[in-house]
């Protein structure tokens, strides 16, 4: 990723949201004078035929770039592997001498939890990152609303930069949101923490056992 360029990773299984979001984001990028490229990543455990259907539509309508199902699947499996390795390591540290809240403050772990939460949902989501490391991420509704209301934070963009201003506006939307439904689906084997903080609001998430059949 070249210096000054932004990349937007996005996914979900709502094609209408995908159309609205990418259209709004492209309009904002043009008005803001930034270079923004898009890559569709689908969701975790997305069925192959469903993934290929979305990829065909995205390519046919020239919406954005996309990853082949095999590469997309590898991305999500690799992310789960990072969760397992990082989580187990931090759990072992906490048993020795490191406080448990270090997991909450670990930037890498926060990013992994956010992405896995997005990947567990059928709804849209987006992550925007710059080569410098500045990053914004949110569920589809909040990200789409932020771009539709760009005029309300355009001045802050000029003052602080694009992603800092976007994060500030997203934080305001989180505060006024009446409710949200965030889930995090993890394999039953391997590292499973006792508690997980919601990637959206920071509150403790409820824990359930979930069985699901992925056959058509």
UniProtKB/TrEMBL annotation:
Q: Which residues form a coiled coil?
A: none
A family per Pfam: SEO_C
Where would I find the Sieve element occlusion C-terminal domain in this sequence? 1-214
One GO term under biological process is:
phloem development
Q: Taxonomically, which superkingdom?
A: Eukaryota
InterPro entries linked to this entry: SEO_C (IPR027944), SEOA (IPR039299)
Could you identify this protein by its name? Answer: Sieve element occlusion C-terminal domain-containing protein
Q: Which species is this UniProt entry from?
A: Rubus argutus
């Amino acid at each position: 990723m070249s210096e000054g360029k932004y990349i937007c990773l996005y996914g979900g299984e709502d094609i209408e949201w995908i159309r609205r979001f990418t259209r709004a984001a492209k309009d904002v990028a043009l008005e803001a004078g930034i270079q923004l490229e898009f890559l569709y990543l689908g969701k975790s455990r997305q069925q192959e035929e469903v993934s290929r259907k979305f990829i065909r539509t995205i390519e046919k309508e020239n919406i954005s770039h996309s990853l082949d199902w095999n590469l997309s699947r590898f991305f999500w499996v690799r992310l789960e592997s990072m969760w397992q390795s990082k989580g187990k390591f931090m759990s072992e540290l906490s048993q020795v001498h490191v406080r448990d809240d270090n997991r909450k403050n670990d930037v890498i772990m926060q990013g992994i939890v956010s992405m896995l939460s997005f990947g567990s949902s059928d709804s849209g989501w987006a992550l925007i990152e710059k080569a410098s490391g500045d990053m914004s991420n949110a569920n589809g509704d909040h990200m789409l609303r932020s771009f539709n209301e760009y005029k309300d934070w355009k001045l802050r963009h000029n003052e602080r930069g694009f992603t800092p201003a976007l994060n500030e506006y997203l934080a305001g939307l989180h505060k006024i949101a009446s409710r949200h439904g965030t889930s995090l689906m993890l394999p039953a084997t391997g590292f499973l923490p006792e508690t997980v903080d919601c990637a959206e609001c920071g509150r403790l998430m409820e824990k359930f056992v979930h069985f699901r059949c992925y056959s058509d």
